[in-house]
Amino acid sequence: MQTEAMRVDHETLLNWPRPDVFLIPKAKRKQYVRRHRALEAYMSGSSVAGAAKHFGVNRSTLTRLVRLSIELDATGTPWGFRACLPYFHSDTGDETDNSPAATPVAARPHSFGQLIRSSQHVRELVQTFTGNLPAGRRRSAAFDRLFRQLKRELKGSEHLYPLNTRDKGRRALLEYVKRQRQRAGRASIGESTPPQPTIERLDQLFPLYPFSRAEYDGHHEDIEWFIEVPTPDGGWATRKVSELTFIPDIDAVTRFVHSWTLVLGRGYRQYDLMELFAKGMRPWKPGVLTTPDLCYVTGAGMPSSIMPDGKAPRSILHAGDNFSAHKAAYIRHNLLHVHLGVWNWAQAHIPEKRAIVEAFFHHIEHGALRGIAGGYVPPTERGAAPTPSNSLDPKHYPLNVIALLELMDVIVSAHNVTSHRGLHDRAPLTVAHEYVERGGWIWQSSLSERHAQQISCLRLSVTIRGSRKESRQPYVEWKGARYRSDALVGRFDLIGKKFEATIPFDDLRMLTLYDKNGNVFVRLPALPPWATSKHDVRVREQVIQWDRAKVLSITGVEDAIEAFHSYLRATAHSSGKSADLYARHQTALGVPSDAAMKRSHQKSEKVPREGWIGAENMEDLP
């Protein structure tokens, strides 16, 4: 068909859909404008060659745009100037062209469209498919069946396209179906649409008050942490700690911190969140500071400090992202059944969803942590090096876990009583205290201590095992340990029965079983080598992992935890994993808080600032 027969009148041209130029990617705008003007010039009477040359558009491209622009979309509207979009794609003629086409021999542009036109059975098979499509790692059984049916339909043509390609045409089929569905629903592609009202935060519905919303998240601190570990020759060496994650729970209205925790090593798990929320349900008391020249700010405190009865308040709603640790089975059950309240898990990497906690991270780092040895400013470009924020060499000032925990408690409690511009230069606890004095509603519970214990418990289902024939007394096996009690001696009738059980995640030495009425049935202590030392789930899982890898043997030992500690002392100098665990368990390992080793070169180094750590120099939150 000659292109001259494809011209439209002036009135039709004015009614053609026109994409909003500002919605087109900046790098593609000039290309779109040239195509738009060339197409408009042709429809107004210019020749294809003249319009293409004048506006710098390839003649073949303009010919294709003329043909595409007058085709109709799924709503019966011409594509118009939308065809000029550089990323516009159309399987022209696949549905409307009934002329026979030869089966394509090789993969070329539009080969799959040619395949569709060459076989009516293939066309009906593909175009009637309505199942889900695979996305990312999510597979689609319906699409897999469609692909198998397509290969059966093309059986005998293995030398032709698409069976002669590496993936037998799977990707081409997927892209074709995607384009078909886009064509059915993209009548307004590239056009400007009026903004739709969206509700993404609770404060968009009604005003928030203190204790009505809290936000929590984990943040990797921008500091190179080093720790001193023992060496086989009796000396000490510095090894880098992979990460240190700070996890706070902060009120979104007053900006005071409910609770916080630190995680040494790479990543954090649901058990760390259990510690965070259990800590927030207990009254805060100033700790006994052992770090020299460190003391609390006058009036420093946490939310329980402003309560008349001294009990810790809770927030009505907690907002977090969809990180796996936030939504894991144990923590989700405990939050919903023990901590109570409303929980909002939204998308990650969107700071606007949880603006307060994201700003708090920036606040703490700039105002308090950048002065620590090893502090740095992250690079803004990929591949660039971070910028040190001070001149202190972190290898000369190794991390002391006890001092770090004391420092963070001082910093957080100081933040709660430091004036804030977003609160009209009032302190977070001052705002909360005024709300309490006015009779504002606060959620407290007389069972908070019990709830704090329950939120750290793991609920599981166990089966009683044993053997009457072999005289093996009933026991329960969980996480590589056996639990047995004298109360079950001779109770072979219980073998094979299931019971609901609980166990504190931070002390796995006692397992509690419950009957059908929810009453305590029996308490089972762990058998050696897990019966002596207190340990949590993370330690036991690590010991079992190393035992199976045959790098740490607990067979025949009396205390697996002591064997674990000995292994850390022996390997922390050569293993990054052991160095992280050595830092995390520094207190249990009996490492003195005053740094057992004194290096002579430290005498000439700059000494960190002395005095109490406040929050006056911190940048203001938005």
Topology:
Layout: H1 10-15, H2 26-43, H3 48-55, H4 59-69, H5 111-118, H6 120-127, H7 141-153, H8 170-185, E1 213-216, E2 219-220, E3 225-230, E4 236-241, E5 244-251, E6 257-264, H9 270-280, E7 317-321, H10 329-339, E8 342-346, H11 355-369, E9 376-377, E10 387-388, H12 401-415, H13 428-437, H14 448-454, E11 457-463, E12 465-467, E13 472-478, E14 481-483, E15 498-504, E16 510-514, E17 520-525, H15 537-548, H16 560-571, H17 576-584
Parallel strand pairs: 1-7, 7-8
Antiparallel strand pairs: 1-5, 2-5, 3-4, 5-6, 9-10, 11-15, 12-13, 13-14, 15-16, 16-17
Helix pairs in contact: 2-3, 5-6, 6-7, 9-10, 9-14, 16-17
Structure characterization notes:
This protein has 17 helices and 17 strands. It is 31% helix and 14% strand. It is extended and about 90 Å long. Strands 1, 2, 5, 6, 7 and 8 form a six-stranded mixed sheet that branches. Strands 11-15-16-17 form a four-stranded antiparallel sheet, with no helix packed on it. Strand 13 and strand 14 form a beta hairpin. The protein has helices at residues 10-15, 26-43, 48-55, 59-69, 111-118, 120-127, 141-153, 170-185, 270-280, 329-339, 355-369, 401-415, 428-437, 448-454, 537-548, 560-571, 576-584; strands at residues 213-216, 219-220, 225-230, 236-241, 244-251, 257-264, 317-321, 342-346, 376-377, 387-388, 457-463, 465-467, 472-478, 481-483, 498-504, 510-514, 520-525. The protein is an alpha+beta fold. The model is unreliable at 91-98, 185-195 and 593-622 (pLDDT under 50). The protein starts with 9 loop residues before the first helix and ends in a 38-residue tail after the last helix.
